[in-house]
Design a protein that fits this description.
By secondary structure, this protein is mostly beta strands. It has one domain. Helices cover 7% and strands 35% of the residues. Strands 6, 7, 8, 11, 12, 13, 14, 15, 16, 17, 18, 19, 22 and 27 form a 14-stranded mixed β-sheet that branches. Strands 5, 23, 24, 25, 26 and 28 form a 6-stranded antiparallel β-sheet that branches. A hairpin with an 8-residue loop joins strand 24 and strand 25. The longest helix has 15 residues. The protein is globular. This is Secreted protein. It comes from Nannocystis punicea. Keywords: Signal.
């Protein structure tokens, strides 16, 4: 028995820019190609600091060749740290954040060998593993928060999530497409489609999903039912090409599913120090977009899956407004302008959690939140084309919104080998494991439900399903479908086990 730690040629600019109705847009980037990637730990992936000198990823102790997620190396950016802790319109409570976080009794004194957590898997059977094999270490969050505050001071445009909810500028389409509705006909589904530009765009791809029921105990943000969906900039890049545009978020008001409205915001990485602080898109060291295969909103923090490393953490209470949105290629502060690839609002990173040098390799293809667990946990899933994809659960303190550490290290509370292929998302709730898997029957996905040491039950799921999110008060489980012209965002009643 494992040890348990306690604790997306011419398209509408609606597909790419922020306000204008039409645009020639960037038409590069095919749909997600099956790319081979080697999974393994990195030495570190620290939060960006004062300079942007890059260092390479460290060697993995073991490797597993997989396909599915684009090959990304979320390598570190290093340098000096900023010390300016000021910032307009922000809560000062979190500026005192330290890397220590909530503590529990020492555990995981004898982690297992990596070979012991890569056993032979049996299809449709979920087997528990020792979570102590997987460990994360936090970056200096106090320095990351200080840098984000210095950025807010320089832009002078701090806004709240309620401000952004009052400026939603796009209209969703109620219901599912006939194509996806036929697949889901036996379920009492709810959902919507993106506007025409966002539904067809081939260079932004939706991936992660979370919402107000994750973020708040009372399920609402600003009194509304809200979703957040992450999209990564899916383009083919040569090494000499400009960096990708990173990751955008769709903030969606689903209070009335017959009147869905939303807006895109850009995730950004602060760089530099003090009065010289600036920002760039959420990319990897190689200049490719962070895949953002899963996201979870906890309090004011947004945890974003960083495929080869762990999590990047963004602060939804430190959103800032740009001064210009007419240049889709511009990013950062220059010439008296603040620009974010054509988007009006940007959300800054404040820190990271990376696999430690001693951790066994693990891919972070998705992330979700289980508030029903004791302690509450972030649930991560590993995309593999064979049956060896693993699920790990990481203890989180909902009051501080930080992962629970043991002597500066966050150990997985527990883990499991899923016995399913192509896991795009996973969540646990009331002890039941839910797994969103793609291409399980022809092009169609399946939603699996399972208990440890049991055989899975199967539910029809759409073409191109991704991450999972549970709207607890309505007992709905949500996903976002990624493929152009087939994109829907839907929820169905949870079925338990």
């Amino acid at each position: 028995m494992p040890r348990l730690a306690l604790a997306s040629l011419v398209l509408l600019l609606a597909a790419c820019g922020d306000d204008p109705a039409t645009s020639t847009g960037d038409t590069s980037g095919p749909g997600p190609a099956s790319a081979t990637q080697t999974s393994g730990t990195t030495d570190d992936d620290p939060a960006p600091t004062g300079t942007t000198t890059s260092t390479g990823s460290g060697p993995a102790t073991t490797t597993t060749t997989v396909t599915g997620d684009p090959a990304t190396t979320d390598a570190p950016v290093t340098g000096t740290t900023g010390t300016d802790t000021t910032g307009p319109g922000v809560d000062t409570d979190t500026t005192t954040d330290t890397t220590t976080g909530p503590m529990v009794e020492p555990i995981c004194t004898d982690p297992p060998a990596c070979a012991d957590v890569e056993p032979t898997a049996t299809e449709h059977e979920l087997g528990l593993l020792d979570g102590c094999a997987f460990a994360l270490a936090p970056s200096d969050f106090a320095a990351g928060i200080a840098r984000a505050d210095a950025l807010l001071e320089r832009t002078g445009t701090a806004v709240t999530i309620d401000d952004v909810l009052g400026q939603l500028n796009r209209v969703g389409v109620p219901g599912l497409s006939a194509y996806q509705a036929e697949r889901m006909k036996n379920h009492d589904y709810v959902g919507f489609r993106w506007n025409d530009g966002d539904g067809a765009v081939t260079y932004w791809y939706p991936q992660g999903i979370t919402g107000s029921s994750d973020a708040r105990a009372d399920h609402k943000v600003g009194g509304r039912r809200v979703l957040l969906v992450s999209w990564y900039h899916n383009i083919d890049r040569e090494p000499t090409d400009p960096p990708a545009r990173g990751v955008r978020l769709s903030l969606v008001d689903i209070t009335d599913l017959d009147d869905v409205r939303y807006r895109h915001l850009l995730l950004v990485t602060p760089t530099g120090d003090g009065p010289d602080v600036n920002f760039e898109a959420a990319n990897t060291k190689a200049g490719d977009a962070l895949h953002a295969g899963g996201i979870t909103w906890v309090g004011d923090r947004l945890y974003v899956a960083s495929t080869s490393a762990g999590f990047r953490v963004y602060d939804m209470s430190r959103i800032f407004e740009t001064t210009a949105s007419d240049d889709e290629n511009a990013i950062g502060i220059a010439g008296g302008q603040v620009q974010a690839h054509g988007y009006r609002y940007a959300v800054p990173e404040i820190g990271r959690y990376n696999l430690t040098a001693d951790s066994c390799p693990l891919r972070f293809s998705a992330v979700s939140l289980d508030r029903s667990a004791d302690p509450p946990v972030l649930v991560t899933a590993e995309y593999q084309t064979d049956l060896t994809g693993r699920i790990a659960r990481w203890p989180i303190d909902l009051d501080s919104t930080r992962l629970v550490e043991n002597g500066g290290t966050v150990f997985a509370r527990d883990a499991a080998i899923a016995g399913q292929t192509r896991i795009q998302g996973a969540v646990t709730y009331d002890g039941v494991y839910y797994m969103s898997c793609s291409s399980q029957t022809s092009q169609w996905g399946r939603l699996y439900r399972n208990l440890p040491d049991s055989t899975s039950e199967i539910t029809a799921w759409p073409d191109g399903p991704e991450d999972l999110y549970i709207e607890r008060d309505l007992e709905l489980i949500w996903t976002a479908a990624e493929h152009p012209d087939k994109r829907v965002t839907l929820g169905i009643p949870m079925q338990g086990y």
